[in-house]
Amino acid sequence: MPEIHHTDLLVVGAGPAGYTAAIYAARASLKPILVTGMQPGGQLTITTDVENYPGFATPVQGPWLMEQMRAQAEHVGTRLIYDLIVQADLKKGPGPDGYFRLVGDSGDEFRARTVVIATGAQARWLGLESEKRLQRGGVSACATCDGFFYRGKTVAVIGGGNTAVEEALYLTHHADKVHLIHRRDSLRAERILQERLFSNPKIEVHWNKAVEEVLGSGEPEVVCGIALKDTQTGAPSKLDVDGVFVAIGHTPNTGPFLHEVACDSDGYILTESGGTETSVKGVFAAGDIQDRIFRQAVTAAGTGCMAALEAERYLSGIPAMTKT
Ligand SMILES: Cc1cc2nc3c(=O)[nH]c(=O)nc-3n(C[C@H](O)[C@H](O)[C@H](O)COP(=O)(O)OP(=O)(O)OC[C@H]3O[C@@H](n4cnc5c(N)ncnc54)[C@H](O)[C@@H]3O)c2cc1C
Are 188 and 274 in contact (CB under 8 A)? Predict the structure, then answer.
């Protein structure tokens, strides 16, 4: 039987942004409900070593870190519900009863006085079985997160847009050699980035090449190379690399919120500069769903905190961003 849940603050998403928003909201006695979606713990559950989240002297495992956040959120009073929001009625504002209405895949209805959308973004992958298999063994979608592990090594970056070029340039601070693999004969990246790329002696661009397979070896299996195919001639080739960075963009998980709050042309939710308010009063967005620049666990957690504090102020009738 579908249920109706009432709350002062509904958090949608169980990544660093959602859990942090829930922790702050629970400690402010807002009795938050957090709906987890299909990936409880969020993106960090598909990685291994996390070395840049403050508070740990040595690397921690992504899934473990997210378990700690979940436990902390529950410990302070968050109610977790394993459901997926499939419908949200936000743009007309709350109903006459003061509640926004959202619906879960289970049929449950969520009535919330404020909503924090923290649904994250998914890195786009090539779609290869070998790429998925080696995600814990040297295939990454985040140079800032994992580049450090490739000091003195050889890596490949796949893509031809701004993200790929930025990732390749960033990786030259760590790796000895960076191969940029692009399936066309020109890059989409901005000219200034291209100039920096072409003048960097550590970077070699491989034009008209598509990745056929990520190659692994050893036990546990780690990346040892990539199999390529020339997109013009079909000729196969192989490169020995220690890591592969897929940089073909991200897709924000805007889903049911796309036409309910203002979004940019790629579907990222627009928030007030310096805050987390969306175009709808009482609805806030935190984490990667509103951040196409930094995309880090700590920045997601930071904006989760901001969203809960702003929601609390909204419920108390204090205008957002007012200095107290
Ligand atoms: C392979 C990899 C390695 C990374 N390594 C690091 C690292 O070392 N350090 C670092 O700081 N960052 C790292 N990152 C980036 C970091 O994981 C993200 O910046 C961070 O997880 C974003 O947090 P978030 O809470 O915004 O969203 P996410 O972590 O993406 O979580 C989104 C949540 O929303 C839920 N959701 C989505 N749609 C719905 C819906 N309709 N209804 C309900 N719930 C929904 C999902 O189930 C999920 O729980 C890495 C990312 C990847 C992919």
Answer: no
Q: Please say whether the beta carbons of 155 and 245 come within 8 A.
A: yes
For residue 228, what are its two tokens?
């390529």
> What is the CB < 6 Å shell around ligand 1?
12-18, 35-40, 42-44, 46-47, 50, 52-53, 84-85, 118-120, 123, 140-142, 145, 253, 255, 287-289, 295-298, 300
Dump pLDDT digits (tens) for 26-67: 999 999 999 999 999 999 998 888 999 999 999 999 999 999
Query: Which residue, chain included where needed, has tokens 């390749």?
Result: 168
Task: List active site positions.
Answer: 142, 145-146
Ligand 1 centroid, distance to 69 Cα (angstroms): 13
Q: How far is the CA of 252 from the centre of ligand 1 (A)?
A: 10
Q: Tell me the pLDDT tens digit for each residue of 105-129.
A: 999 999 999 999 999 999 999 999 9
Rounded to the nearest angstrom, the distance between the alpha carbon of 2 and the centre of ligand 1 is: 28
Q: Is 172 within 8 Å of 262 (Cβ atoms)? A: no
Local structure of residue 9 (DSSP, 8 states): E
Complete domains list, the chain, with CATH:
4-122+250-316 (3.50.50.60), 125-246 (3.50.50.60)
pLDDT tens digits, one per residue of 160-173: 999 999 999 999 99
Q: Please give the Cα distance from 64 to 53 (Å, whole number).
A: 12
